Amino acid sequence: MIRDIISRFARTVTERRASPRKKFQLPIKIWFDPDPSIHRSAAGDGELNITGVTADISATGIGILVPSIRIKENYLVAEDRILNAEINLRGRKVRMRVIGRRYERVGIHASTEQYLVGAEIVEMSDDDRRTYEYFLKNGHKLKAMVEPSLEMGLE
To answer: Among residues 100, 127, 105, 108, which one has the least CA distance to residue 116?
Structure first.
């Protein structure tokens, strides 16, 4: 009985320490801030980005699946490097700044190789934060509302 009470208490403390992760596959675009010391082409800085999909999201971080761990010579996970991210939340784009904390290679062989990047959210506008948190709370309902219409071919 005492062991059961201690186990429940430990589980409650653990759950409150970490933000619960929600599994959503949402399109995401990642890019670096422009480096003023490097001459840029007329195309601008938008050409240095990578697209992927989220594996999971939480109030404090996101898991991202990307085809490469770097953009040109810049690694996504390195020395507290800040990344810009734009997630498409069912038609609404939310921008945030994140720091890649860890990564691991996933996929069976080179043709399907991807990287799972764990990133901490460090900055977001108030409006984007409200949209993001609303999606965290209600995303499963929104998903259920959208999926049946797609199955029937309706939009």
So the answer is: 105
Residue 152 DSSP one-character state: T
Domain membership of residue 14 (yes or no) is no
87, amino acid identity:
I
**pLDDT at res. 113:** 84
Tell me the range of 3-7, 98-102, 134-138 where mean pLDDT is highest: 98-102
Inside any domain, residue 12: no
3-state secondary structure of 102: strand
Predicted pLDDT of residue 2: 78
| CATH number for the domain that contains residue 58 | 2.40.10.220
Residue 62 class from Cβ within 10 Å (0-12 exposed, 13-18 middle, 19+ buried)?
Answer: buried
Q: Is residue 16 part of a domain?
A: no
- Lookup: tokens for 115: 């990287």
Mark residue 51 as left, alpha or beta (left: phi above 0; alpha: psi -120 to 50; beta: remaining). Answer: beta
Instruction: Give residues with Cβ within 8 angstroms of 19, minimum separation 6.
Output: 58, 59, 60, 61
Question: Contact, 128 vs 90, CB < 8 A?
Answer: no
The tally of domains found in the chain comes to 1
Task: List the domain range (segments joined by +) for residue 119.
Answer: 22-151
End-to-end CA distance of the chain: 54
